[in-house]
Design brief:
By secondary structure, this protein is mainly alpha-helical. The chain has 14 helices and four strands. The N terminus is likely disordered.
Length: 462
C-alpha cells in the first residue's frame, strides 16, 4: 500500500475529380458496382434486423431508428455531430468514448477524419447533381429528337405540296397560254416552259387569275420551308451539343462514383487513428488522459460484479490515484512517468524503502525484489502504490491479459477497488468511503486529501 510512498504524494488532437483512363475506369466501375451491391445487401439486412422482434415478427419501426453510417451524413449534419457519436469505441467503458478530450495527435486525427467525411459528402452531392443533370439532358435529347422527327415530316409534306403546285402551274401554262402579258404571274408562267407555251392559245385573263393564287401559295410554302430548315438546323446543332454534354456528364458520374468509393475505403483507417489517439488525449476538466478515466471507470464497473452493492465509483478511485501518483504521471527524475494507451505506466513508479525512515513502517522484502526491485526492503509500487505483500493478496487482472501487474493502471485500479470493498464493505456512504481510504493508508491527513480530490472529480459527469 502507500506506507512510505514517494515524496510526490501528500504527507504520507468543386469540380469533378481528375479524369480516369478507360481501362482503370472500367475496372474501378466494376469494383464500385460490387461494392454498391454489397452495401445495398448489408443495408437491407440491417434494416430487416432492426425491424425484427425477438418473436421473429417485424416491429414496424421506421428506418430513422436504424443507425446511419458517418459516410451517409450531409455537410450540415457533420457540422453539428460529436466525434464520440461518429466513432464509438467498444474498447472503452461506457461514456468514456464521448468525453471531450484533446491532444495534437487526437485533434489532427479528428480533423483528417472529418475532412474525409466532408469530401465524401461533397462527392455524394456532386454525384447526385450529375445524375439529376443527366436525367434532364436525356429528356432534352429525347424532346429534340422528337421535334426533329416532326419537322422532317413537315418538310416532306411541304416539299410534296410545292411539287404539286409546280406541276399544276406547268400544266396550267400549257393549257392557258397567252401570247403576251406583263404581270408577275404571266412572267413566271412564261419562265416555266416558253417553248411549250408558244404552242398554246387561250386567254391571258384566265391564266392570270389562276396563276396568281398558285404562285401566292407557293411563296407561302417556300417561306415556311425556309423557316423549317432554319429551325431544323438549330435543333441538330443543339442535339449535338446535348449529346456531347451527356457524354461528359456520364464520365463525371463515373469519376464521382469512383472517387466516392475510394474515399470511403479510407474511413476505417482514419477511424482507427481517432480511436488510437483518443486513449491518450487529455481531459482538461479532469487534468488527466482518457485512458486514466477508462481505467478507473472500468475498475468501478468490474468491482460491482465482484462485490455487488459495495458501490465503488470511478471518482473514488481517481482520488486515490491523484494522491498516490498523480494518476501515473509522477514527475520523477530523470524521466517523468506516463500512462500508455494500454494502461502500462513507465518508467515504473517505485516508492522509498520501508525501512523505518521518514516515518515509515519497517517491512522487509516479501517478493524477492520482483515488483519493487529491492531485495532487502519492500517499497510501494505502481500508480496506486501497493506494497508487494498487499498486492499478493489483492492484485487482480483489470485489463484481461491474464497478468495482474501493479504497474498497469487497469490492474492497479481494479485491485484498489477490490481492496476498498474488502476493508470497508460498503463505500456508498461518506463514512464507508473514508473507512476504506483509511484502510488504504492509516493517516487522517491522507484520508482528507484523497476524499477532497474524489469529491472534486465527482462533479464531472460521465
Amino acid at each position: 500500500m502507500s506506507f512510505g510512498r514517494p515524496n510526490f504524494s501528500c504527507p504520507h488532437r468543386l469540380a469533378p475529380p481528375a479524369r480516369i483512363s478507360g481501362v482503370y475506369r472500367l475496372a474501378a466501375a466494376c469494383v464500385l458496382a460490387l461494392a454498391l451491391i454489397a452495401s445495398s445487401l448489408t443495408a437491407s439486412a440491417t434494416h430487416a434486423l432492426a425491424q425484427e422482434t425477438p418473436d421473429g415478427e417485424t416491429s414496424g419501426e421506421t428506418s430513422e431508428e436504424i443507425a446511419v453510417r458517418p459516410e451517409q451524413l450531409t455537410l450540415e449534419q457533420l457540422a453539428d455531430v460529436e466525434i464520440g457519436d461518429l466513432i464509438p469505441d467498444p474498447n472503452l467503458s461506457p461514456g468514456v468514448d464521448r468525453v471531450a478530450a484533446t491532444s495534437p495527435e487526437y485533434d489532427a486525427a479528428i480533423e483528417s477524419y472529418l475532412n474525409q467525411l466532408r469530401l465524401i459528402a461533397e462527392a455524394r452531392d456532386s454525384l447526385g447533381s450529375s445524375k439529376d443533370e443527366l436525367v434532364g439532358l436525356q429528356a432534352d435529347k429525347t424532346r429534340i429528337r422528337e421535334r426533329l422527327t416532326e419537322r422532317r415530316r413537315e418538310r416532306r409534306t411541304l416539299v410534296r405540296e410545292l411539287d404539286r403546285i409546280e406541276n399544276h402551274l406547268r400544266a396550267m401554262a400549257v393549257r392557258e397560254y397567252v401570247s403576251s402579258g406583263t404581270t408577275d404571274a404571266h412572267t413566271q408562267l412564261q419562265g416555266l416552259d416558253p417553248d411549250v407555251m408558244r404552242d398554246a392559245g387561250r386567254s391571258f385573263q384566265l391564266v392570270e387569275e389562276a396563276g396568281e393564287v398558285q404562285i401566292e401559295n407557293r411563296g407561302t410554302l417556300e417561306a415556311s420551308l425556309a423557316k423549317l430548315d432554319t429551325e431544323q438546323d438549330s435543333d441538330e446543332k443543339r442535339l449535338a451539343q446535348v449529346a456531347l454534354t451527356v457524354t461528359t456528364t456520364q464520365n463525371d458520374i463515373e469519376d464521382w462514383s469512383i472517387a466516392l468509393f475510394e474515399s470511403s475505403t479510407k474511413i476505417p483507417e482514419l477511424e482507427a487513428a481517432v480511436r488510437d489517439n483518443r486513449r491518450l488525449a487529455y481531459i482538461p476538466e479532469l487534468e488527466f488522459d482518457v485512458v486514466v478515466l477508462d481505467a478507473y471507470n472500468s475498475a468501478a464497473i468490474a468491482s460491482e460484479e465482484i462485490h455487488p452493492g459495495c458501490g465503488v465509483q470511478w471518482w473514488m478511485l481517481a482520488g486515490i490515484g491523484r494522491v498516490e501518483s498523480r494518476h501515473g504521471t509522477y514527475n520523477g527524475t530523470p524521466n517523468p512517468s506516463s500512462v500508455a494507451s494500454d494502461g502500462l505506466v513507465t518508467p515504473e513508479i517505485i516508492g522509498i524503502p520501508l525501512n523505518g525512515d521518514s516515518a515509515t513502517a519497517v517491512i522487509t522484502d516479501t517478493d524477492g525484489g520482483l515488483l519493487d526491485r529491492d531485495p532487502i526492503f519492500d517499497r510501494a509500487v505502481g500508480p496506486m502504490q501497493f506494497i508487494p505483500s498487499t498486492w499478493a493478496g489483492n492484485g487482480l487482472d483489470g485489463d484481461g491479459n491474464g497478468d495482474a501487474n501493479p504497474h498497469n493502471l487497469y490492474d492497479a485500479a481494479l485491485s484498489a477497488a477490490h481492496y476498498l470493498c474488502r476493508t470497508a464493505g460498503n463505500v456508498t456512504t461518506v463514512e464507508g468511503l473514508r473507512r476504506g481510504y483509511f484502510a488504504y493508508n492509516h493517516h487522517d491527513s491522507y484520508v482528507n486529501a484523497v476524499y477532497a480530490f474524489a469529491v472534486g472529480y465527482q462533479k464531472f459527469e460521465l
